[in-house]
Design goal:
424 residues, alpha/beta, Rossmann fold, 2 domains, five-stranded parallel sheet, 15 strands
Length: 424
C-alpha cells in the first residue's frame, strides 16, 4: 500500500499551538489553510505577522505566507486533513471538562468534509473526547461513514495526537519531541503518523487507541503537577518553620536519587493547571493524590499573599506608611507573554484586594495589562522604575530579563523570592 499523501492541511485554531503547527507544515511545502474565529488573528497572519510571542515563529510565518504556503481564513475550506487545536478549559466548581470549543470546531469542518479526509484532535482532551468528536461529525454528515461505526473501511479517518511542547521552545520541540498518535482504528493511526512525520524528527509512537493517547498526555501533566505540589508544599512548611526552602532543596538534591523541583507562586498555563482535572473528572474516587496536588498548587497564591502582607505590616510599623509593592513577573512561566491561568496574576489580584500598599507590576513581555488588571488600577512599569519606587519587591516569575535581580539590586529593601532567580 502506497504511503498517504497530504496536499492541503487545514488547522482549526491559530493560537499558541495551532499557528506554530500550521507554520511547520507550511515550511515543508504543504499548502496550509489556517482557520480562526478572530478576525484580527486572521488579518495579522495574512500580513505575514504573528499575534503571539514565540521565538523563531515570526520568521517562519513571514516566509511561508510570502511563499503562499500559509493563509488564514475565518471559515474552513476543503482539505485532505483537518487538525483541531482549540482550547479545552474546564467549567464550574467541579472542574468539569468544557468540550464546547471542540464541538464547535467539529460543526465548522463538517460541511467541507469528504471521503478520505483525516481529522486529528490535537487539543489536550479528557478521555473519550476524540470519540465524541467523531460522533459529532457523524451526526452532521450522515452521508459519510466514520471509524466509530464502520471501522477500518470508513470514509473519514479520526485520530488524537496531543501536543507536548514547551512555550518558548515550541518551534524546536515540535520537530524533536516524540509524538503519541492514537487512532480510532489502526488505519487512522498510520495515516496520522504519516502526516506528522512530514516534520517530526522524533518518533511517532502509535498508541493502542485514542483513549490511551488522551490519557498519556493527561498523565504527563498530572505527573508534573504532583511533583510541583511537593515543592510548593515544602515551601509552605519551610515558611511556617522559618527556614530557607532554597537551602533545604539544594541540600536534599545532593542525594543521587532526589531531584526536587523549584517552588513558585502556584501552577499556571493552559495544561498543567487544567489537565489533572480531566483525570479527576473521569475517576474522582480514584484520584486523591492528584486532587491533593491541585489543592496545594491552587492554594499557593494565598500563601504568597500572606508573605506579602507580613512584609507590608512590618514596613508600616517601621515607617508609618503603606509600602509600594513591586510584583516582578505576571506570566505563567518564564520568558513568554502568556498570562493564562497564571498564579502570578492571581497573586496580583489578591494583593490589590488586600490593600496592603500601592501595587506596581513589571512584566517585560507585554505592552499593556489585560483588562481585568487595568481596571483595578494596577500600574505596569519598567524594572528600573520598580527598583526606584518599590519598598517591597516580590519575585514571582524568573524571566531572563530578571537574571540580575536580587535583594542587592533593591538596596536592602524587603525582597521576597517566591520563584527562585539566578542569583539566589
Amino acid at each position: 500500500m502506497s504511503e498517504r499523501v497530504f496536499n492541503r492541511i487545514s488547522v482549526i485554531g491559530l493560537g499558541y499551538i495551532g499557528l506554530p503547527t500550521a507554520a511547520m507544515f507550511a515550511s515543508r511545502g504543504i499548502e496550509v489553510v489556517g482557520v480562526d474565529v478572530n478576525p484580527h488573528t486572521v488579518e495579522t497572519i495574512n500580513r505575514g505577522e504573528i499575534h503571539i510571542v514565540e521565538p523563531e515563529l515570526d520568521a517562519v510565518v513571514q516566509k511561508v505566507v510570502n511563499e503562499n504556503k500559509l493563509r488564514a481564513t475565518l471559515a474552513p475550506e476543503p482539505a485532505d486533513a483537518f487538525l483541531i487545536a482549540v482550547p479545552t478549559p474546564f467549567k464550574g466548581d467541579n472542574h468539569d471538562p468544557d468540550l464546547s470549543y471542540i464541538e464547535a470546531a467539529a460543526g465548522a469542518i463538517a460541511p467541507v468534509l469528504s471521503a478520505g479526509n483525516l481529522v486529528v484532535l490535537e487539543s489536550t482532551s479528557p478521555v473519550g473526547a476524540t470519540e465524541r468528536m467523531a460522533a459529532w461529525l457523524a451526526e452532521r454528515r450522515p452521508d459519510l461513514t466514520f471509524p466509530t461505526s464502520h471501522g477500518e473501511g470508513s470514509d473519514i479517518r479520526v485520530a488524537h495526537c496531543p501536543e507536548r511542547v514547551l512555550p518558548g521552545k515550541v518551534m524546536q520541540e515540535l520537530i524533536l519531541n516524540d509524538r503519541v498518535v492514537g487512532g480510532i482504528t489502526q488505519r487512522c493511526s498510520r495515516e496520522a503518523a504519516t502526516l506528522y512525520k512530514t516534520f517530526v524528527e522524533g518518533d511517532c509512537v502509535i498508541a493502542s487507541n485514542t483513549r490511551v493517547a488522551e490519557m498519556a498526555k493527561l498523565t504527563e501533566n498530572s505527573f508534573r503537577d504532583v511533583n510541583i505540589a511537593f515543592a510548593n508544599e515544602l515551601a509552605n512548611v519551610c515558611s511556617s518553620l522559618d527556614m530557607n526552602v532554597w537551602e533545604v532543596i539544594q541540600l536534599a538534591n545532593r542525594h543521587p536519587r532526589v531531584n526536587i523541583l523549584k517552588p513558585g507562586p502556584g501552577v499556571g498555563g493552559h495544561c498543567i493547571a487544567v489537565d489533572p482535572w480531566f483525570i479527576v473528572a473521569a475517576a474522582r474516587q480514584d484520584t486523591p493524590l492528584i486532587q491533593a496536588a491541585r489543592t496545594v498548587n491552587d492554594g499557593r497564591p494565598e500563601r504568597v499573599l500572606g508573605q506579602i502582607q507580613t512584609a507590608a505590616s512590618d514596613f508600616y510599623v517601621r515607617n508609618g506608611r503603606r509600602p509600594v509593592i513591586a510584583l516582578l513577573g505576571l506570566s505563567f512561566k518564564p520568558d513568554i507573554d502568556d498570562l493564562r491561568e497564571s498564579p502570578a496574576v492571581e497573586v496580583a489580584h489578591l494583593t490589590l484586594a488586600s490593600k496592603a500598599g500601592t501595587i506596581i507590576a513589571v512584566e517585560p513581555h507585554i505592552e499593556e495589562l489585560p483588562r481585568g488588571l487595568r481596571e483595578t488600577g494596577l500600574e505596569l512599569v519598567s524594572l528600573d522604575i520598580a527598583v526606584e519606587r518599590a519598598d517591597i519587591a516580590v519575585m514571582l516569575v524568573n524571566h531572563q530579563a530578571f537574571s540580575d535581580v536580587s535583594s542587592a539590586l533593591f538596596g536592602g529593601k524587603d525582597y521576597i523570592c517566591v520563584c527562585r532567580d539566578a542569583n539566589e
